[in-house]
Amino acid sequence: MDPKSYIALLLRCRNVFQIRQVHARVVVNGVFADLVVANKLLYIYAQHKAMDDAYTLFAQMKTRDHITWSLMVGGSAKVGDYVNCYAAFREIIRGGVQLNSYVLPFVIRTCRDRKDLQMGRVIHDIALKHGLHLDQFVCASLLDMYAKCMVIEDAQKLFDKMPHKDLVTWTVMIGAYAECRNAYESLLLFDRMMEEGVVPDKIAMVTIANACAKLGAMHRARFIHEYIFKNNFSLDVILGTAMIDMYAKCGSVESAREVFDRMREKNVISWSAMIAAYGYHGQGKAAIDLFHMMLSSGISPNRVTFVSLLYACGHAGLIEEGRSFFNLMWEEHAVRPDVKHYTCMVDLLGRAGRVDEALALIETMTVDKDERVWSALLGACKTHGNMELAEKAANSLLELQPQNAGHYVLLSNIYAKAGKWEKVLKIRDLMTQRRLKKVPGWTWIEVNNKTYQFRVGDNSHPRSKEIYAMLDSLINKLELAGYVPDTNFVLHDVEEEVKVGMLYTHRMSKNLRVCGDCHTFSKMVSAIMRRDIIVRDANRFHHFSGGACSCGDYW
Question: Where does each PPR repeat begin and end (predicted)?
Fold first, then answer.
Protein backbone atom coordinates (compact mmCIF):
# COMPACT_ATOMS: atom_id res chain seq x y z
CA MET A 1 0.00 0.00 0.00
CA ASP A 2 1.21 3.51 -0.74
CA PRO A 3 1.19 6.30 1.91
CA LYS A 4 -2.05 7.79 0.54
CA SER A 5 -3.85 4.52 1.21
CA TYR A 6 -2.83 4.56 4.87
CA ILE A 7 -4.00 8.17 5.17
CA ALA A 8 -7.36 7.15 3.69
CA LEU A 9 -7.59 4.33 6.25
CA LEU A 10 -6.84 6.71 9.11
CA LEU A 11 -9.57 9.10 8.02
CA ARG A 12 -12.09 6.24 8.21
CA CYS A 13 -11.14 5.33 11.80
CA ARG A 14 -13.96 5.79 14.30
CA ASN A 15 -12.14 4.99 17.55
CA VAL A 16 -8.69 4.72 19.10
CA PHE A 17 -8.58 0.92 18.72
CA GLN A 18 -8.92 1.25 14.93
CA ILE A 19 -6.25 3.99 14.83
CA ARG A 20 -3.82 1.73 16.71
CA GLN A 21 -4.43 -1.07 14.21
CA VAL A 22 -3.57 1.21 11.29
CA HIS A 23 -0.60 2.54 13.28
CA ALA A 24 0.74 -1.01 13.69
CA ARG A 25 0.39 -1.71 9.96
CA VAL A 26 2.22 1.55 9.19
CA VAL A 27 5.16 0.49 11.37
CA VAL A 28 5.25 -3.13 10.15
CA ASN A 29 5.18 -2.10 6.50
CA GLY A 30 7.92 0.51 6.94
CA VAL A 31 5.78 3.53 6.10
CA PHE A 32 6.36 5.21 9.45
CA ALA A 33 9.34 7.13 8.05
CA ASP A 34 6.99 9.02 5.72
CA LEU A 35 6.48 12.34 7.57
CA VAL A 36 3.09 13.00 5.98
CA VAL A 37 1.75 9.65 7.27
CA ALA A 38 3.30 10.13 10.73
CA ASN A 39 1.80 13.62 11.02
CA LYS A 40 -1.60 12.30 9.95
CA LEU A 41 -1.38 9.63 12.67
CA LEU A 42 -0.50 12.33 15.18
CA TYR A 43 -3.44 14.42 13.97
CA ILE A 44 -5.94 11.57 14.23
CA TYR A 45 -4.77 10.66 17.74
CA ALA A 46 -5.13 14.31 18.77
CA GLN A 47 -8.61 14.51 17.23
CA HIS A 48 -9.67 11.55 19.40
CA LYS A 49 -7.92 13.13 22.43
CA ALA A 50 -5.69 10.05 22.74
CA MET A 51 -2.68 12.15 23.71
CA ASP A 52 -0.79 9.36 25.49
CA ASP A 53 -0.62 7.55 22.14
CA ALA A 54 0.30 10.83 20.43
CA TYR A 55 3.15 11.51 22.87
CA THR A 56 4.52 8.00 22.34
CA LEU A 57 4.33 8.43 18.58
CA PHE A 58 5.95 11.86 18.77
CA ALA A 59 8.88 10.48 20.80
CA GLN A 60 9.50 7.82 18.13
CA MET A 61 9.53 10.28 15.22
CA LYS A 62 13.06 10.90 13.93
CA THR A 63 11.94 13.71 11.62
CA ARG A 64 9.61 16.55 12.64
CA ASP A 65 8.43 19.67 10.87
CA HIS A 66 6.31 22.71 11.79
CA ILE A 67 3.13 20.65 11.29
CA THR A 68 4.35 18.07 13.82
CA TRP A 69 5.00 20.70 16.46
CA SER A 70 1.73 22.47 15.71
CA LEU A 71 -0.18 19.23 16.23
CA MET A 72 1.52 18.68 19.58
CA VAL A 73 0.59 22.18 20.74
CA GLY A 74 -3.01 21.85 19.54
CA GLY A 75 -3.54 18.32 20.82
CA SER A 76 -2.16 19.11 24.27
CA ALA A 77 -4.33 22.24 24.50
CA LYS A 78 -7.48 20.29 23.61
CA VAL A 79 -7.05 17.88 26.53
CA GLY A 80 -5.97 20.61 28.97
CA ASP A 81 -2.36 19.43 29.21
CA TYR A 82 -0.85 22.89 29.59
CA VAL A 83 2.61 21.54 30.58
CA ASN A 84 3.14 19.77 27.25
CA CYS A 85 1.37 22.55 25.35
CA TYR A 86 3.77 25.17 26.71
CA ALA A 87 6.76 22.82 26.30
CA ALA A 88 5.99 22.16 22.63
CA PHE A 89 5.47 25.87 22.02
CA ARG A 90 8.81 26.72 23.62
CA GLU A 91 10.52 24.21 21.31
CA ILE A 92 8.88 25.88 18.32
CA ILE A 93 10.28 29.26 19.40
CA ARG A 94 13.74 27.87 20.20
CA GLY A 95 13.96 25.93 16.96
CA GLY A 96 13.02 28.90 14.85
CA VAL A 97 10.01 27.07 13.40
CA GLN A 98 7.71 29.41 11.48
CA LEU A 99 4.70 30.37 13.59
CA ASN A 100 1.22 30.36 12.08
CA SER A 101 -2.34 31.24 12.97
CA TYR A 102 -3.03 27.59 13.87
CA VAL A 103 -0.53 27.30 16.73
CA LEU A 104 -0.99 30.62 18.51
CA PRO A 105 -4.75 30.35 19.18
CA PHE A 106 -4.22 26.98 20.91
CA VAL A 107 -1.51 28.37 23.21
CA ILE A 108 -3.63 31.44 23.91
CA ARG A 109 -6.59 29.17 24.74
CA THR A 110 -4.43 27.38 27.29
CA CYS A 111 -3.56 30.75 28.85
CA ARG A 112 -7.28 31.54 28.90
CA ASP A 113 -8.27 28.28 30.57
CA ARG A 114 -5.54 28.68 33.21
CA LYS A 115 -6.26 32.43 33.55
CA ASP A 116 -2.52 32.84 33.02
CA LEU A 117 -2.45 36.54 32.13
CA GLN A 118 1.33 36.79 32.39
CA MET A 119 1.90 34.04 29.82
CA GLY A 120 -0.92 35.46 27.71
CA ARG A 121 0.85 38.80 27.47
CA VAL A 122 4.07 37.00 26.48
CA ILE A 123 2.21 35.21 23.66
CA HIS A 124 0.72 38.54 22.58
CA ASP A 125 4.24 40.00 22.31
CA ILE A 126 5.37 36.98 20.28
CA ALA A 127 2.42 37.48 17.94
CA LEU A 128 3.48 41.11 17.47
CA LYS A 129 7.07 40.12 16.63
CA HIS A 130 5.90 37.59 14.04
CA GLY A 131 3.35 39.92 12.46
CA LEU A 132 0.39 37.79 13.53
CA HIS A 133 -1.13 40.26 16.00
CA LEU A 134 -3.83 41.33 13.51
CA ASP A 135 -4.70 37.85 12.27
CA GLN A 136 -8.44 37.31 12.83
CA PHE A 137 -8.04 33.95 14.62
CA VAL A 138 -5.18 35.18 16.80
CA CYS A 139 -7.01 38.39 17.69
CA ALA A 140 -10.22 36.57 18.57
CA SER A 141 -8.25 34.22 20.83
CA LEU A 142 -6.47 37.13 22.54
CA LEU A 143 -9.74 38.99 23.08
CA ASP A 144 -11.26 35.90 24.66
CA MET A 145 -8.17 35.32 26.83
CA TYR A 146 -8.15 38.91 28.14
CA ALA A 147 -11.87 38.67 28.92
CA LYS A 148 -11.46 35.43 30.89
CA CYS A 149 -8.59 37.09 32.78
CA MET A 150 -10.95 40.04 33.52
CA VAL A 151 -8.83 42.71 31.81
CA ILE A 152 -11.39 44.13 29.41
CA GLU A 153 -9.30 47.27 28.85
CA ASP A 154 -6.60 45.24 27.08
CA ALA A 155 -9.25 43.49 24.99
CA GLN A 156 -10.79 46.82 24.01
CA LYS A 157 -7.40 48.31 23.00
CA LEU A 158 -6.68 45.31 20.79
CA PHE A 159 -10.16 45.43 19.29
CA ASP A 160 -9.88 49.14 18.49
CA LYS A 161 -6.55 48.64 16.68
CA MET A 162 -7.89 45.98 14.34
CA PRO A 163 -8.18 47.40 10.80
CA HIS A 164 -10.77 44.78 9.84
CA LYS A 165 -13.27 43.28 12.24
CA ASP A 166 -15.15 40.22 11.07
CA LEU A 167 -18.25 38.69 12.65
CA VAL A 168 -16.19 36.32 14.82
CA THR A 169 -14.20 39.22 16.30
CA TRP A 170 -17.33 41.27 17.02
CA THR A 171 -18.99 38.26 18.64
CA VAL A 172 -15.99 37.52 20.85
CA MET A 173 -15.76 41.17 21.95
CA ILE A 174 -19.48 41.30 22.75
CA GLY A 175 -19.05 38.15 24.82
CA ALA A 176 -15.93 39.61 26.45
CA TYR A 177 -17.87 42.52 27.94
CA ALA A 178 -20.53 40.17 29.24
CA GLU A 179 -17.78 37.96 30.70
CA CYS A 180 -16.37 40.99 32.54
CA ARG A 181 -19.78 41.79 34.05
CA ASN A 182 -20.51 44.71 31.75
CA ALA A 183 -23.44 43.45 29.73
CA TYR A 184 -24.55 47.04 29.15
CA GLU A 185 -21.47 47.61 26.97
CA SER A 186 -22.17 44.30 25.21
CA LEU A 187 -25.50 45.62 24.00
CA LEU A 188 -23.98 48.92 22.89
CA LEU A 189 -21.32 47.03 20.96
CA PHE A 190 -23.97 44.86 19.33
CA ASP A 191 -25.70 48.05 18.14
CA ARG A 192 -22.39 49.29 16.69
CA MET A 193 -21.89 46.00 14.88
CA MET A 194 -25.34 46.22 13.30
CA GLU A 195 -24.76 49.86 12.31
CA GLU A 196 -21.55 48.86 10.53
CA GLY A 197 -23.47 46.35 8.46
CA VAL A 198 -22.09 43.17 10.05
CA VAL A 199 -24.89 40.58 9.93
CA PRO A 200 -25.07 38.38 13.07
CA ASP A 201 -25.26 34.61 12.78
CA LYS A 202 -26.68 32.09 15.24
CA ILE A 203 -23.56 32.11 17.44
CA ALA A 204 -23.68 35.90 17.65
CA MET A 205 -27.35 35.75 18.65
CA VAL A 206 -26.56 33.25 21.40
CA THR A 207 -23.82 35.57 22.66
CA ILE A 208 -26.05 38.65 22.69
CA ALA A 209 -28.88 36.66 24.29
CA ASN A 210 -26.50 35.71 27.12
CA ALA A 211 -25.48 39.36 27.55
CA CYS A 212 -29.13 40.38 27.57
CA ALA A 213 -29.82 37.79 30.26
CA LYS A 214 -27.10 39.24 32.49
CA LEU A 215 -28.49 42.75 32.12
CA GLY A 216 -32.15 41.77 32.33
CA ALA A 217 -33.18 44.09 29.47
CA MET A 218 -36.62 42.91 28.37
CA HIS A 219 -37.04 45.28 25.41
CA ARG A 220 -33.76 43.99 23.98
CA ALA A 221 -34.88 40.43 24.62
CA ARG A 222 -38.00 41.09 22.53
CA PHE A 223 -35.86 42.57 19.74
CA ILE A 224 -33.54 39.56 19.75
CA HIS A 225 -36.53 37.21 19.65
CA GLU A 226 -38.04 39.07 16.68
CA TYR A 227 -34.72 39.12 14.83
CA ILE A 228 -34.22 35.38 15.30
CA PHE A 229 -37.63 34.47 13.88
CA LYS A 230 -37.57 37.13 11.17
CA ASN A 231 -34.32 35.66 9.88
CA ASN A 232 -35.53 32.06 10.19
CA PHE A 233 -32.88 30.87 12.62
CA SER A 234 -33.75 27.34 13.68
CA LEU A 235 -34.61 27.09 17.34
CA ASP A 236 -32.07 24.36 18.10
CA VAL A 237 -30.89 23.24 21.52
CA ILE A 238 -28.17 25.89 21.86
CA LEU A 239 -30.16 28.92 20.68
CA GLY A 240 -33.39 27.77 22.31
CA THR A 241 -31.70 27.22 25.66
CA ALA A 242 -30.03 30.65 25.46
CA MET A 243 -33.44 32.24 24.83
CA ILE A 244 -35.01 30.38 27.77
CA ASP A 245 -32.30 31.71 30.05
CA MET A 246 -32.59 35.20 28.53
CA TYR A 247 -36.33 35.50 29.06
CA ALA A 248 -36.15 33.98 32.54
CA LYS A 249 -33.52 36.51 33.63
CA CYS A 250 -35.37 39.38 31.98
CA GLY A 251 -38.39 38.72 34.17
CA SER A 252 -40.75 36.66 32.00
CA VAL A 253 -40.90 33.00 32.94
CA GLU A 254 -44.01 32.73 30.73
CA SER A 255 -42.03 33.75 27.63
CA ALA A 256 -39.27 31.33 28.61
CA ARG A 257 -41.82 28.52 28.77
CA GLU A 258 -43.24 29.48 25.36
CA VAL A 259 -39.76 29.14 23.84
CA PHE A 260 -39.26 25.85 25.67
CA ASP A 261 -42.55 24.43 24.36
CA ARG A 262 -41.71 25.49 20.77
CA MET A 263 -38.37 23.66 20.75
CA ARG A 264 -38.61 20.48 18.71
CA GLU A 265 -35.53 18.98 20.29
CA LYS A 266 -34.67 19.31 23.97
CA ASN A 267 -31.70 17.89 25.82
CA VAL A 268 -30.89 17.78 29.52
CA ILE A 269 -29.46 21.32 29.35
CA SER A 270 -32.72 22.70 27.93
CA TRP A 271 -34.81 21.01 30.62
CA SER A 272 -32.41 22.16 33.34
CA ALA A 273 -32.55 25.75 32.06
CA MET A 274 -36.34 25.78 32.27
CA ILE A 275 -36.29 24.26 35.76
CA ALA A 276 -33.80 26.97 36.77
CA ALA A 277 -36.11 29.62 35.24
CA TYR A 278 -38.90 28.57 37.58
CA GLY A 279 -36.40 28.71 40.44
CA TYR A 280 -35.43 32.32 39.67
CA HIS A 281 -39.07 33.28 39.98
CA GLY A 282 -39.77 31.33 43.15
CA GLN A 283 -42.05 28.80 41.43
CA GLY A 284 -40.73 25.72 43.15
CA LYS A 285 -43.80 23.57 42.52
CA ALA A 286 -43.66 24.29 38.78
CA ALA A 287 -39.96 23.34 38.78
CA ILE A 288 -40.73 20.02 40.44
CA ASP A 289 -43.59 19.29 38.01
CA LEU A 290 -41.28 19.99 35.07
CA PHE A 291 -38.62 17.71 36.56
CA HIS A 292 -41.12 14.84 36.62
CA MET A 293 -42.11 15.64 33.01
CA MET A 294 -38.44 15.46 32.10
CA LEU A 295 -38.11 11.99 33.62
CA SER A 296 -41.27 10.86 31.81
CA SER A 297 -39.79 12.04 28.49
CA GLY A 298 -36.83 9.72 28.98
CA ILE A 299 -34.21 12.42 29.71
CA SER A 300 -31.87 11.54 32.59
CA PRO A 301 -30.98 14.41 34.95
CA ASN A 302 -27.39 15.52 35.48
CA ARG A 303 -25.56 17.63 38.05
CA VAL A 304 -26.87 20.89 36.60
CA THR A 305 -30.46 19.63 36.74
CA PHE A 306 -30.22 18.96 40.46
CA VAL A 307 -28.55 22.30 41.16
CA SER A 308 -31.48 24.01 39.40
CA LEU A 309 -34.02 21.86 41.23
CA LEU A 310 -32.52 22.35 44.69
CA TYR A 311 -32.19 26.07 44.04
CA ALA A 312 -35.89 26.21 43.13
CA CYS A 313 -36.85 24.34 46.30
CA GLY A 314 -34.71 26.67 48.40
CA HIS A 315 -36.34 29.84 47.07
CA ALA A 316 -39.85 28.47 47.53
CA GLY A 317 -39.34 27.13 51.06
CA LEU A 318 -39.84 23.50 49.94
CA ILE A 319 -37.58 22.02 52.58
CA GLU A 320 -38.73 18.41 52.64
CA GLU A 321 -38.91 18.23 48.85
CA GLY A 322 -35.35 19.57 48.67
CA ARG A 323 -34.14 16.99 51.17
CA SER A 324 -35.80 14.23 49.18
CA PHE A 325 -34.20 15.27 45.88
CA PHE A 326 -30.80 15.63 47.53
CA ASN A 327 -31.03 12.09 48.91
CA LEU A 328 -32.30 10.62 45.63
CA MET A 329 -29.55 12.13 43.49
CA TRP A 330 -27.10 9.32 44.01
CA GLU A 331 -29.50 6.56 45.02
CA GLU A 332 -31.77 6.74 41.96
CA HIS A 333 -29.91 8.79 39.37
CA ALA A 334 -26.22 8.05 40.06
CA VAL A 335 -25.42 11.76 40.36
CA ARG A 336 -22.89 12.26 43.14
CA PRO A 337 -23.47 15.52 45.06
CA ASP A 338 -20.75 18.13 44.58
CA VAL A 339 -20.09 21.40 46.38
CA LYS A 340 -22.84 23.23 44.41
CA HIS A 341 -25.49 20.79 45.59
CA TYR A 342 -24.33 21.09 49.19
CA THR A 343 -24.40 24.87 48.83
CA CYS A 344 -28.01 24.73 47.65
CA MET A 345 -28.93 22.57 50.65
CA VAL A 346 -27.14 24.87 53.08
CA ASP A 347 -28.97 27.80 51.52
CA LEU A 348 -32.32 25.96 51.66
CA LEU A 349 -31.91 25.12 55.36
CA GLY A 350 -30.47 28.54 56.18
CA ARG A 351 -33.33 30.47 54.59
CA ALA A 352 -35.75 28.43 56.69
CA GLY A 353 -33.84 29.41 59.85
CA ARG A 354 -32.33 25.97 60.37
CA VAL A 355 -28.77 27.26 60.57
CA ASP A 356 -27.65 24.56 63.02
CA GLU A 357 -28.79 21.87 60.57
CA ALA A 358 -27.01 23.73 57.79
CA LEU A 359 -23.76 23.71 59.77
CA ALA A 360 -24.19 20.01 60.57
CA LEU A 361 -24.55 19.30 56.84
CA ILE A 362 -21.36 21.25 56.09
CA GLU A 363 -19.47 19.27 58.70
CA THR A 364 -20.54 15.97 57.11
CA MET A 365 -19.66 17.00 53.54
CA THR A 366 -17.78 14.37 51.57
CA VAL A 367 -16.36 16.94 49.12
CA ASP A 368 -14.03 19.88 49.68
CA LYS A 369 -15.70 22.95 51.13
CA ASP A 370 -15.34 26.20 49.20
CA GLU A 371 -16.35 29.82 49.70
CA ARG A 372 -19.86 29.26 48.30
CA VAL A 373 -20.88 26.93 51.11
CA TRP A 374 -19.64 29.25 53.84
CA SER A 375 -21.17 32.29 52.08
CA ALA A 376 -24.57 30.57 52.08
CA LEU A 377 -24.25 29.90 55.82
CA LEU A 378 -23.05 33.44 56.53
CA GLY A 379 -25.98 34.90 54.61
CA ALA A 380 -28.41 32.78 56.63
CA CYS A 381 -26.76 33.89 59.87
CA LYS A 382 -27.20 37.53 58.82
CA THR A 383 -30.91 36.97 58.10
CA HIS A 384 -31.59 35.15 61.35
CA GLY A 385 -29.13 36.97 63.61
CA ASN A 386 -26.97 34.02 64.65
CA MET A 387 -23.78 35.80 65.71
CA GLU A 388 -21.82 32.76 66.87
CA LEU A 389 -22.22 30.81 63.65
CA ALA A 390 -21.72 33.98 61.60
CA GLU A 391 -18.25 34.43 63.05
CA LYS A 392 -17.40 30.78 62.39
CA ALA A 393 -18.55 31.03 58.78
CA ALA A 394 -16.77 34.36 58.28
CA ASN A 395 -13.47 33.03 59.64
CA SER A 396 -13.66 30.07 57.26
CA LEU A 397 -14.40 32.44 54.38
CA LEU A 398 -11.50 34.75 55.21
CA GLU A 399 -9.14 31.78 55.32
CA LEU A 400 -10.26 30.75 51.82
CA GLN A 401 -10.46 34.24 50.31
CA PRO A 402 -8.61 36.82 52.43
CA GLN A 403 -8.74 39.38 49.57
CA ASN A 404 -12.50 39.25 48.97
CA ALA A 405 -13.90 42.52 50.30
CA GLY A 406 -17.48 41.22 50.16
CA HIS A 407 -16.89 38.78 53.04
CA TYR A 408 -15.64 41.56 55.32
CA VAL A 409 -18.59 43.76 54.42
CA LEU A 410 -21.12 41.01 55.13
CA LEU A 411 -19.59 40.26 58.55
CA SER A 412 -19.47 44.00 59.26
CA ASN A 413 -23.18 44.25 58.44
CA ILE A 414 -23.99 41.38 60.79
CA TYR A 415 -22.13 43.15 63.60
CA ALA A 416 -23.92 46.40 62.74
CA LYS A 417 -27.33 44.72 62.82
CA ALA A 418 -26.49 43.48 66.33
CA GLY A 419 -25.30 46.96 67.35
CA LYS A 420 -21.70 45.82 67.90
CA TRP A 421 -20.14 48.99 66.49
CA GLU A 422 -16.69 48.37 67.95
CA LYS A 423 -16.41 45.14 65.96
CA VAL A 424 -17.71 46.97 62.89
CA LEU A 425 -14.85 49.46 63.21
CA LYS A 426 -12.32 46.63 63.61
CA ILE A 427 -13.53 45.00 60.38
CA ARG A 428 -13.42 48.32 58.54
CA ASP A 429 -9.90 49.00 59.87
CA LEU A 430 -8.79 45.55 58.74
CA MET A 431 -10.13 46.27 55.26
CA THR A 432 -8.21 49.56 55.21
CA GLN A 433 -4.99 47.84 56.31
CA ARG A 434 -5.37 45.25 53.55
CA ARG A 435 -6.38 47.92 51.01
CA LEU A 436 -9.68 46.24 50.26
CA LYS A 437 -12.67 48.05 48.79
CA LYS A 438 -16.14 46.79 48.03
CA VAL A 439 -16.95 47.21 44.35
CA PRO A 440 -19.92 49.62 44.07
CA GLY A 441 -23.10 48.01 42.77
CA TRP A 442 -24.98 49.16 39.69
CA THR A 443 -28.70 49.15 39.06
CA TRP A 444 -30.46 49.10 35.70
CA ILE A 445 -33.99 50.23 34.95
CA GLU A 446 -35.98 50.06 31.72
CA VAL A 447 -38.13 53.06 30.79
CA ASN A 448 -39.87 53.33 27.40
CA ASN A 449 -37.71 50.60 25.87
CA LYS A 450 -34.47 52.20 26.99
CA THR A 451 -32.10 50.89 29.65
CA TYR A 452 -30.61 53.31 32.20
CA GLN A 453 -27.70 52.48 34.44
CA PHE A 454 -27.06 54.17 37.80
CA ARG A 455 -25.60 53.65 41.25
CA VAL A 456 -26.43 54.87 44.76
CA GLY A 457 -26.74 58.67 45.05
CA ASP A 458 -26.31 59.06 41.29
CA ASN A 459 -27.04 62.51 39.84
CA SER A 460 -25.67 61.90 36.36
CA HIS A 461 -29.02 61.66 34.60
CA PRO A 462 -29.97 64.99 32.93
CA ARG A 463 -33.39 64.82 34.60
CA SER A 464 -32.13 63.74 38.02
CA LYS A 465 -33.85 66.68 39.79
CA GLU A 466 -37.21 65.59 38.40
CA ILE A 467 -36.48 61.98 39.34
CA TYR A 468 -35.69 62.84 42.95
CA ALA A 469 -38.69 65.19 43.13
CA MET A 470 -40.90 62.32 41.96
CA LEU A 471 -39.31 60.06 44.55
CA ASP A 472 -40.08 62.61 47.30
CA SER A 473 -43.69 62.83 46.11
CA LEU A 474 -43.98 59.06 46.10
CA ILE A 475 -42.56 58.81 49.59
CA ASN A 476 -45.09 61.35 50.88
CA LYS A 477 -47.93 59.31 49.39
CA LEU A 478 -46.62 56.14 50.98
CA GLU A 479 -46.24 57.77 54.39
CA LEU A 480 -49.84 59.02 54.21
CA ALA A 481 -50.83 55.41 53.52
CA GLY A 482 -49.02 54.26 56.65
CA TYR A 483 -45.54 53.41 55.42
CA VAL A 484 -42.91 53.69 58.15
CA PRO A 485 -39.27 53.18 57.11
CA ASP A 486 -37.67 50.23 58.89
CA THR A 487 -34.30 51.68 59.91
CA ASN A 488 -33.09 48.30 61.15
CA PHE A 489 -31.91 47.71 57.60
CA VAL A 490 -29.52 50.67 57.72
CA LEU A 491 -26.32 49.24 59.12
CA HIS A 492 -24.59 52.42 60.23
CA ASP A 493 -24.25 54.00 63.67
CA VAL A 494 -26.05 57.30 62.91
CA GLU A 495 -29.04 59.27 64.15
CA GLU A 496 -32.55 58.04 63.33
CA GLU A 497 -33.36 60.93 60.95
CA VAL A 498 -30.21 60.24 58.97
CA LYS A 499 -31.09 56.54 58.76
CA VAL A 500 -34.43 57.40 57.15
CA GLY A 501 -32.60 59.44 54.51
CA MET A 502 -30.28 56.51 53.82
CA LEU A 503 -33.23 54.22 53.22
CA TYR A 504 -34.73 56.58 50.66
CA THR A 505 -31.45 56.66 48.75
CA HIS A 506 -30.98 52.93 49.28
CA ARG A 507 -33.89 52.13 47.00
CA MET A 508 -31.79 53.35 44.10
CA SER A 509 -28.85 51.08 44.87
CA LYS A 510 -28.19 47.51 43.80
CA ASN A 511 -28.00 45.01 46.65
CA LEU A 512 -26.87 41.42 46.73
CA ARG A 513 -30.31 40.65 48.13
CA VAL A 514 -33.29 42.98 48.35
CA CYS A 515 -33.60 44.28 51.92
CA GLY A 516 -36.78 44.06 53.98
CA ASP A 517 -37.57 47.76 53.83
CA CYS A 518 -37.14 47.91 50.04
CA HIS A 519 -39.44 44.91 49.80
CA THR A 520 -42.16 46.61 51.86
CA PHE A 521 -41.68 49.86 49.95
CA SER A 522 -42.08 48.13 46.59
CA LYS A 523 -45.24 46.34 47.68
CA MET A 524 -46.84 49.61 48.75
CA VAL A 525 -45.77 51.42 45.57
CA SER A 526 -47.39 48.67 43.47
CA ALA A 527 -50.66 49.17 45.38
CA ILE A 528 -50.76 52.98 45.52
CA MET A 529 -49.53 53.58 41.96
CA ARG A 530 -51.50 50.59 40.59
CA ARG A 531 -48.45 49.44 38.71
CA ASP A 532 -46.83 46.03 38.48
CA ILE A 533 -43.16 46.10 39.43
CA ILE A 534 -40.55 43.47 38.70
CA VAL A 535 -37.41 43.58 40.82
CA ARG A 536 -34.44 41.33 40.22
CA ASP A 537 -31.83 41.04 42.93
CA ALA A 538 -28.76 38.79 42.98
CA ASN A 539 -30.79 35.71 43.92
CA ARG A 540 -34.22 35.83 42.33
CA PHE A 541 -37.15 37.83 40.96
CA HIS A 542 -39.84 39.61 42.91
CA HIS A 543 -43.11 40.40 41.09
CA PHE A 544 -44.99 43.12 42.97
CA SER A 545 -48.66 43.67 42.18
CA GLY A 546 -51.53 45.14 44.17
CA GLY A 547 -49.48 45.36 47.35
CA ALA A 548 -48.28 41.75 47.33
CA CYS A 549 -45.13 39.99 46.15
CA SER A 550 -44.84 36.72 44.27
CA CYS A 551 -42.34 35.45 46.85
CA GLY A 552 -45.00 35.46 49.56
CA ASP A 553 -42.48 37.38 51.72
CA TYR A 554 -40.16 34.37 51.71
CA TRP A 555 -36.85 35.07 50.06
Answer: 166-200, 236-266, 267-301, 338-372
